[in-house]
Amino acid sequence: MVLAGVTPAFGVQPKNIAVSKVTPSSAVLVVKADVSADVRVDYGSSSGVYTVSKTSLGLTRHEVLLDVPVPSSTIYYSVTITDSANPAVSVTVPEKSFHTARFAGQPFSFGAAGDNRPWSNTTVQPAVWGTIVGQMAAENPDLALNVGDIIYGTPTDTSTQNIAKYDGYFSITSTLSASVPVYQAIGNHEYIGTASNRAGYEQEFTLPENNGADAGTYGEEYYSFDNGDTHFVSLCTELPGQEGLVTGNQKLWLQQDLAVNTKPWTVVFMHRPLFAGVHTTDPWMNTANTVGQQNKADMHALFRQYGVDIVFEGHEHFYHHHVEDGIQYIITGGGGAPLMTPPVSAPGDIFGWSGYEHVKVDETAASLKVSAIDSTGITRESFSLGTPTLRLSQLRTYWASYAEYLSRNLSVDYALVNNGAGDATGLQVVYLTANNSVLPITATPVSLGDLAAGASVTATIKYQVPVDVSIFRTTTVVSCGDLAGNFYSYPGSAPV
Q: Residues near 291 by Cβ (< 8 Å), separated by ≥ 6?
């Protein structure tokens, strides 16, 4: 079966159902059948209550525009597919639902994964990709990103062979895409440098289109869209003649697109990684390739100039987290292709792991919480982008020993809590003072490590207290950074 819960009548069955090009007030529903068919989509804002019907006639692949009755809402729909040559034969797909694009200020979640291609030249997707798709579907995200290498294409594929490989992808991914728009980035294994492969990709996916100089030729190969408080940008590292680079018209479009973006968060996704790749002949990884190295520097500079927060990448079949100038570069290539070994840890590398996985991101206007989840459901890494907010409170005051009592060295335990939206890095107590002739004897700075959003840590500070003092007041200043490289000091700057 193509879709869970569908029992098609003999002679007609769905090959793909996918929600696409979602805006707050519309979506495109792709319905692909195995024969020329007539399609009716009934939908509305309540389960089982359909107030609008749309039809498309006499095609195998349909793109049905849904104008939704309530913007930024959940839409419930049912699809009926009828064999055009035999109207007595039809199938109705059980009700599905999806959420249209969110307005600013409305939180949502999204997934990211990629490199789910088969291990060899076949139409059959890896079994673990089905597991990962099921995990993402169970998380009920608003959308998902695929960083490429979704099929095992070859330069000699005919159109029929190429489309059959996409049908193999849809046979698994439809269980997600029927309720969650999946936005693609093109991988090298899509082989869009050949006419039949490029035509197959453009035919089988309905994606946003760029408005740059390439709009008439590579309109869907790179693009951007908004959802909630996030601006998403899909780049193509596989344009014919520019493989392994983002240059020319695409680079110009990217700069223009980023320059007018006003969203708090910017997420880029593309296939080949800018950092930590192990394909050493790729232009960005080959230090002897002067064109590639200059383009790599230019791309990172653009990301830095316009405040890109996360870059999701694939190509390498592992998970890897690298930070460069506060930008989070995440390789999420564990979608099912043969696993590879991450590179030896280098400056900026945070975490690397070889295994099948996907990434879940919880978005609000104030934070992006990123979780890397393996195919067994274990979270391998988690971090939050946003502003940390620290609160210091006294836990207890005590003499640590009789000797400390005799020396009048009083210990005070403080709880330091991060109540903010983002993780705190490099947490330090940088300034201590007290009144009534009490002297802090703990040397500053006191390093406390990193502190995740919502977590707490205990800091013990010692003070020398004169015998005749029973009450005193202290001043403590704590500093930290965030994952984007910003610096903070609480409750304010330390006195000079």
A: 245, 283
Per the omega criterion (within 30 degrees of 0), is the bond before 94 cis? no
Superfamily of domain 1-101: Immunoglobulins (2.60.40.10)
- CATH, range 390-490: 2.60.40.10
Give the largest Cα separation in the chain, rounded.
Answer: 100
Q: What is the pLDDT of residue 9?
A: 42
- Where in the chain are the domains? 1-101, 102-386, 390-490
Tokens 């390498």 correspond to what residue?
Answer: 316
Let me know: does 386 contact 451? Beta carbons within 8 Å: no
Strands 143-146 and 182-184: parallel
Encode pLDDT of 347-401 as tens digits: 999 999 999 999 999 999 999 999 999 999 999 999 999 999 999 999 999 999 9
Please give the backbone phi and psi of residue 80, each rounded to the nearest 5 degrees, phi first: -115, 125
- Please state, in angstroms and rounded to a whole number, the distance separating the CA atoms of residues 222 and 252: 12
The CATH homologous superfamily to which domain 102-386 belongs is Metallo-dependent phosphatases (3.60.21.10)
- Contact between 381 and 373 under an 8 Å Cβ cutoff? The reply is no
pLDDT tier, 492 (very low <50, low <70, confident <90, very high otherwise): confident
Each residue's pLDDT tens digit, 202-218:
999 999 999 999 999 99
Helices 290-305 & 248-260 angle (0-180, nearest 10): 10
Residue 333 structure tokens: 């290539």
For the cut 60, the answer to whether the pLDDT of residue 108 exceeds it is yes
Residue 172 one-letter amino acid: I
Q: With 50 as the cut, is the pLDDT of residue 5 above it? A: no
CA atoms of 47 and 43, how far apart (whole Å): 9
The rounded distance, in Å, linking the Cα atoms of 147 and 116 is 9
What are the tens digits of pLDDT across the range 36-70?
999 999 999 999 999 999 999 999 999 999 999 99
Q: Kindly report the backbone phi and psi dihedral angles of residue 130, in degrees, each rounded to the nearest multiple of 5, phi listed first.
A: -60, -40
Distances (CA, A) of 337 to 129, 267, 294, 416: 9, 24, 30, 44
Compute the C-alpha angle 477/482/488, nearest 5°.
Answer: 30
